[in-house]
Amino acid sequence: MCDTYLRGPSGVITSPNYPVQYDNNAYCVWVITALNPAKVGLQEIWCKSSGSTKFNRAIPVIKLTFEEFDLERGYDTLTVGDGGQAGDQKTVLYVLTGTTVPDLIVSTNHQMWLLFQTDSVRNLLGFKATYEEIDQGSCGDPGIPAYGKREGSTFRHGDTLKFECQPAFELKGQKTITCQKSSQWSAQKPVCVCKSVRRLL
Hints:
Layout: E1 4-7, E2 10-14, E3 27-33, E4 44-47, E5 52-55, E6 60-70, E7 77-82, E8 92-96, E9 105-106, E10 111-117, E11 126-135, E12 148-151, E13 160-165, E14 169-172, E15 176-178, E16 191-194
Parallel strand pairs: 1-3
Antiparallel strand pairs: 2-11, 3-10, 4-5, 6-9, 6-11, 7-8, 7-10, 12-13, 13-15, 14-16
């Protein structure tokens, strides 16, 4: 839907009519806001000098990941910006166009806006993106595969998670993934699939 205010922790944004072609002369705005912009993170810092414990303030940011992207190059655009003032040129992060799926985008504060504009000539399929509220400097929780387990419970830059499957299941994908500085995991969460049973003849 166009002209929508969205709140975290996660959701999906698509161009109008997706997966059918979008309209001519479209003008759509979305503003995404973290659920709780003032939440306090649970990461503790021990101060040796004072012997006290402090809490790091975890600033929630918005992570936008594209699954599909198909716009008329140079004429139909999706502009992505920081904050809640849609269209503010001073806060523009990216102006996206064409048919290449963009890299993920992470805001620098608790809000992100998107502005989708098309001309009157050619219509393509548009875009589909997911948004997720994450702590600044993190990759977000990738989850645990069905029939599997995970070692590691922090998702900050540099953190590593290890996965394994229950007996009778085997792991497909990477056993270990790392949170990169781009706020993206080094690989997708693996899956656990049932081991094939060979029949005895």
